[in-house]
Design brief:
The structure holds 2 protein chains of 2 kinds. Chain A is an alpha/beta fold. Chain A has 2 domains: about 30 residues, no CATH class; about 350 residues, no CATH class. Chain A has 13 helices and 14 strands. Chain A is globular and about 50 Å long. The two termini of chain A are about 30 Å apart. The N terminus of chain A is likely disordered. Chain B folds into 3 domains: about 130 residues, no CATH class; about 130 residues, Class I glutamine amidotransferase (GATase) domain (Rossmann fold, 3-Layer(aba) Sandwich); about 90 residues, Golgi alpha-mannosidase II (Immunoglobulin-like, Sandwich). Helix content of chain B is about 20%, strand content about 25%. Chain B contains 8 helices and 24 strands. In chain B, a hairpin with a 2-residue loop joins strand 14 and strand 15. The chains are: A alpha/beta, B alpha/beta. At the A-B interface, helix 6 of A face strand 16 and strand 23 of B.
Chain lengths: ~375, ~425
């Protein structure tokens, strides 16, 4: 950011940039570090459940995290449920695999979770999440018996809630000082981001933190969002106008982004929004499905994408640490800045989240349990 | 295989004055000759030895047909030329509210007519494109196949350049004609396909008249666009087993439920069915209790083991109506599901013994699927085969995936059929 602004620098904003840089350095040093578990898992069969159970044990045990609690699980269903990369089912490319979701629900149920809420902001739609899953060719009914109470919610709207929950960004955030989200993110004790190990055309990689971008309701942040208040009939289309390009503000009822002088380039904006969300919405566990996935982008609409089989699972209690390890497992440097893979054309949301004090991306400070990173590396740009 | 019947329709070109041009009908599948005006005697005489002649067919707009007396054949004169919707701008297409390309399709209209006039033939006509550059034989073959796949006949209207070319014996025109003859012959060898009833878990009841006509017809159109299949019944034609296999009924009309219709629907709901209707039409239903969650556009009730969804604001938006009905019914009842569908519409029909489901796939872009198309069903498949005009029948290998049984569909130009062998007793 400093470099971009230098051509327009005045003494005042140069000093401000220096101060920000110093603050960022302090934040980086203060950013918490947390253990991340990495495991080899070749299939979505029986070994998956055993591997996930072992990984949760390595992170302190599922019971310590969820016993007697309500768990909100944000899954990753990017794009239309009927769109596939060639003949590859979505769960083996762009979607979190249903076996991973089912296995986690069972592990949480067995560990004493009181309730598991499976949530996603379904692509361009306000339809019930169960119906979206059916459209993807899955049967969500299979998960209903795996924990005492399993609920589904499409968080693009108010859903079962009476009002949106407000999440403020510590330190004011880079762009968004806060977000209004579906009640499922507030009416819970534990938030779990269940993501996919993928690259991303706009953000470099899409892991646990980028997964949470789908939590922003279309009624407030979508292209047809209400001007003053959320429009419960407006959950259609995407989030390009408000979030990607800043062409219009979110509903006035929600915290407003600091748009003055901000670039309208989504490769500047989106990493900041992802970092702001990571700071605003506490994610207690991130699980990244890297068994069967895709390289070259986040969905089959990306030209040149291809299916890949890293055969990996990654889990951690801190979203930045977990994403940093996952980034390294993809063959990238999590310390990379803009201009370096995988952030060739965008800012690094890992760096931006670290600046907000969410967690460290410095592998030297992160303890890895299970498979060492150097043995886990699967080069997405091979 | 049943014996073929030369029942294909040809509209005699106005430019053809020479009776010797009747030679094109010899040994062709075209056995019915249509004349928009009275047939000229010098043509009608010799033509009658070759085929059936129909002069001045009384084509009607579908909204003007009295479905209690639709006639035989039912003559629908306001069909559309099947294609992806084109906008004014070149190289552009129209999109619907979801961003899906708008498709000009006749399937819903033909199926509606077939269900409402079950003992009649359905003929459907529309003017072909005026642009001579759109006279490609594949466009016309697709239009013929669209009608045939849904069980109707469409008169072939020769483009002026082809009519003139055939009169002159032009090689391109002859090739064009032979391709159309081959497609029609292919369909004539499969007459049973055109009589198999729709496989659907949804039944739509309406008189398709007066204030009910627009909402009912548009609902059928837009539900078909979602690849949500349905069967149609008229409120005064409820004989047989109108709700066999149905999981939901949409009663579109404004008239309150009463008489035979009420006697049919009340037990259907009590036994577990879903009824979707106008709030003003549900009055006579007994035993409704509020329940079943909240919905922006419907009052939801429980009734016995079933549910009633009563529209709060009427059927103002048929797009939302189709979406709401699909979701209230649940995609769990989708009989087939397409992945990477693009501009493909599908329609499933069942063999009389319910051992085979035939899925008609119509690709309105006509340039092959952008991505690989996959068909999924919940029901286990014993075997599957793919058929299309001009190619050998070939087996397809179903495979078990996380969500059901799947089949890869080879790229195809305009039309293909998948025959799925299995147990389809629960398929509506």
């Amino acid at each position: 950011m400093l470099q971009d602004n230098r051509t327009h620098a005045t003494r005042r904003n140069f000093l401000a940039a220096l101060a920000a840089s110093a603050a960022a350095s302090r934040a980086r040093a203060e950013a918490p570090a947390s253990r991340v578990a990495v495991a080899r898992c070749d299939t979505y069969g029986r070994e998956l459940h055993e591997t996930l159970a072992r990984m949760l044990d390595q992170l302190g045990g599922a019971a310590r995290l969820v016993r007697g609690k309500t768990v909100t699980m944000k899954i990753n269903l990017t794009g239309s449920p009927t769109m596939r990369m060639g003949k590859v089912p979505a769960e083996k490319a762009q979607y979190t695999h249903p076996a991973v979701i089912g296995s986690l629900v069972r592990l949480f149920g067995d560990a004493g979770a009181r309730r598991v809420q499976i949530v996603e902001g379904c692509f361009s739609s306000d339809e019930p999440l169960e119906e979206f899953l059916l459209a993807a060719g899955w049967d969500p009914a299979l998960w209903l018996t795996l924990a005492p109470q399993v609920l589904f919610e499409n968080t693009n709207t108010l859903g079962r809630g009476r009002r949106y929950a407000r999440f403020m960004t510590p330190r004011g955030g880079h762009l968004f000082p806060g977000f209004d989200l579906n009640h499922a993110y507030a009416n819970c004790d534990v938030v779990v981001s269940v993501a996919k190990l993928k690259e991303h055309a706009t953000c470099g990689v899409t892991l646990g933190m980028k997964n949470m971008f789908g939590a922003t309701p279309l009624t407030i942040y979508g292209d047809y969002a209400g001007k003053d208040e959320p429009d419960e009939n407006g959950a259609r289309s995407g989030r390009a106008a408000i979030m990607h390009h800043g062409r219009r503000p979110p509903s006035k009822s929600a915290p407003q982004p600091r748009e003055e002088g901000s670039p309208k380039d989504d490769k500047w904006r989106m990493p900041r929004i992802v970092a702001d969300l990571a700071a605003a919405v506490p994610v207690h566990l991130t699980v990244i499905d890297g068994i069967d996935t895709m390289a070259g982008g986040e969905g089959p609409w990306i030209r040149g994408c291809r299916p890949v089989h890293p055969g990996l699972l990654i889990a951690g209690l801190n979203p930045v640490c977990t994403d940093a390890v996952a980034t390294a497992c993809m063959g990238f440097d999590p310390m990379a800045a803009r201009g370096t893979p995988p952030f060739e054309t965008c800012d690094s949301f890992l760096e931006l989240a670290e600046q907000l004090g969410v967690g460290t991306r410095d592998l030297r400070r992160i303890e890895v349990a299970g498979l060492p990173v150097e043995k886990a590396v699967f080069r997405f740009r091979a | 295989m049943q014996p073929t019947r030369r029942n294909s329709l040809l509209e005699w070109p106005a430019s053809w004055k020479d009776p010797s041009l009747l030679r094109w009908l010899e040994n062709s599948p075209f056995g019915v000759l249509l004349f928009p005006e009275d047939p000229p005697p010098q043509i009608a005489g010799p033509a009658s030895a070759l085929c059936r002649i129909v002069g001045r067919p009384a084509w009607r707009k579908h909204a003007e047909i009295d479905w209690r007396q639709p006639g035989n054949p039912v003559l629908i004169g306001d069909g559309v030329w099947p294609a992806m919707g084109a906008s004014g701008a070149q190289d552009a297409t129209e999109a619907g509210p979801t961003g899906l390309p708008w498709l000009e399709a006749n399937g819903w209209l033909i199926r509606m007519a077939r269900d409402l006039a079950s003992s009649a033939e359905v003929w459907i006509r529309s003017d072909p494109p005026e642009d001579p550059d759109r006279a490609d034989a594949s466009l016309y073959a697709f239009a013929q196949s669209e009608a045939r796949a849904h069980g109707a006949l469409r008169p072939l209207v020769l483009p002026p350049r082809i009519a003139a070319g055939l009169a002159a014996g032009n090689a391109h025109a002859v090739s064009w004609w032979q391709k159309l003859c081959a497609v029609e012959s292919w369909w004539q060898q499969r007459p049973e396909w055109q009589t198999w009833p729709t496989a659907a878990r949804l039944v739509v009841i309406s008189d398709f008249a007066g204030p009910n006509q627009y909402a009912a017809a548009e609902f059928l159109n837009l539900a078909a666009r979602r690849n949500l299949s349905w069967r149609v019944r008229h409120p005064h034609g409820l004989g047989g087993e109108p709700l066999r296999g149905a999981a939901a009924v949409v009663y579109v009309d404004q008239a309150p439920l009463q008489g035979a219709l009420l006697e049919l629907l009340e037990p259907f709901v009590r036994q577990g069915g879903l009824l979707v209707c106008l709030d003003s039409a549900r009055g006579a239903l007994r035993g409704l209790e509020p329940g079943g969650g909240a919905h922006l556009r419907f009052h939801l009730f429980r009734c016995g083991k079933g549910r009633v969804a009563a529209s709060r604001g009427g059927w103002e938006d048929p797009y939302l109506m189709a979406q709401d009905v699909h979701l209230l019914l649940s995609r769990r009842h989708d009989l087939v599901r397409l992945f990477n569908p693009g501009s493909i519409l599908c329609w499933p029909v069942l063999s009389p013994d319910r051992s085979r489901m035939l899925v008609h796939l119509l690709n309105y872009s006509r340039t092959g699927a952008a991505h690989d198309v996959v068909v999924q069903t919940w029901a286990p498949l014993k075997s599957a085969a793919m058929e299309q005009p001009g190619r050998e029948r070939r087996p397809a290998a179903p495979r078990r995936e996380a969500g059901g049984w799947e089949l890869d569909v080879e790229p195809f130009d305009g039309y293909c059929a998948l025959e799925l062998e299995g147990n389809w007793d629960a398929a509506g």
